[in-house]
């Protein structure tokens, strides 16, 4: 992973060290944190707020993009092939919109 390339420690590695747990346990706990974060975001978007809906949509979309980029084991910025299918779907094999 990151250490082989000389990069900084990953979130999983930091979690393992901080809580003295195995890699498997760290991944499970981080996945729980992500799932709970999505629940919080969805619940908060359903509550009345003074914030404009457009602002909330931008925030949720940013989280969605972050999930696509970092959601798998590979970081899509340093391993761009993991985004290849998304880019192909967006720009090459576009789905026609209803008229």
TrEMBL record:
Keywords tagged on the record: Lyase, Magnesium, Metal-binding
Keyword Transcription regulation found: no
Signal peptide interval: none
Gene3D superfamilies associated with the record: Farnesyl Diphosphate Synthase
Domain annotation Terpene synthase metal-binding: ranges: 2-40
InterPro entries: Isoprenoid_synthase_dom_sf, Terpene_synthase-like, Terpene_synthase_metal-bd
Pfam families: Terpene_synth_C
Domain of life: Eukaryota
Any single biological process term in GO: terpenoid biosynthetic process
Sample GO molecular function, one term: terpene synthase activity
Family matches, as PANTHER family: ALPHA-HUMULENE_(-)-(E)-BETA-CARYOPHYLLENE SYNTHASE, OS04G0344100 PROTEIN-RELATED
Protein's name in the database: Terpene synthase metal-binding domain-containing protein
Source organism: Populus alba (White poplar)
């Amino acid at each position: 992973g990151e250490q082989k390339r000389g990069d900084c420690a990953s979130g999983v590695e930091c979690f393992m060290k901080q809580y003295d747990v195995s890699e498997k346990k760290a991944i499970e706990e981080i996945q729980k944190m992500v799932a709970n974060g999505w629940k919080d975001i969805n619940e908060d978007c359903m509550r009345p707020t003074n914030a404009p809906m457009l602002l909330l949509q931008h925030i949720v979309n940013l989280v969605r993009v972050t999930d696509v980029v970092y959601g798998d084991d590979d970081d899509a910025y340093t391993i761009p092939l993991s985004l290849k299918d998304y880019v192909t779907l967006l720009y090459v094999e576009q789905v026609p919109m209803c008229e």
